[in-house]
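Before the break, one more example. Copy the sequence into your notebook; we will annotate it together after we see the structure.
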Amino acid sequence: MNKDVKTYHDGLSPEDKAICEALYSEIHKNLPGAENKVWHRHPVWFLAGNPIVGYSKLKGSVRLLFWSGQSFDEPGLQPEGSFKAAEARYINAAQIDIKALERWLEKSKNIQWDYKNIVKRKGRLERLK
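Here is what the structure looks like once it is written out:
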């Protein structure tokens, strides 16, 4: 775990830290070649500079966000925002469905929208691959 992500985890309550460490472990295991850093104050994983998945502490829960998650067609992920993102929220680590998370992470490698170039394209997303 890199220093910035560890610092992020260390600033959480024990319950939220348990959720984030469980998410980190699964994401790290399933996206071994992805770059991981704190981006906009939250842990995020990138493939070829494109944000794929991340998590953040919200009031009352921890949000797991997949930037292209609306295209996964998966139960358990709810639309988030006006682009293609989808989320799952957790209030304790026992709520994390590891099998579903593994499916979502596999899809995150194969189903991507080009967020890296969204500004250059003036807010228009294009599908990658």
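The chain is about 30% helix and 30% strand. The mean pLDDT is 93. Try to locate both features in your own notes.
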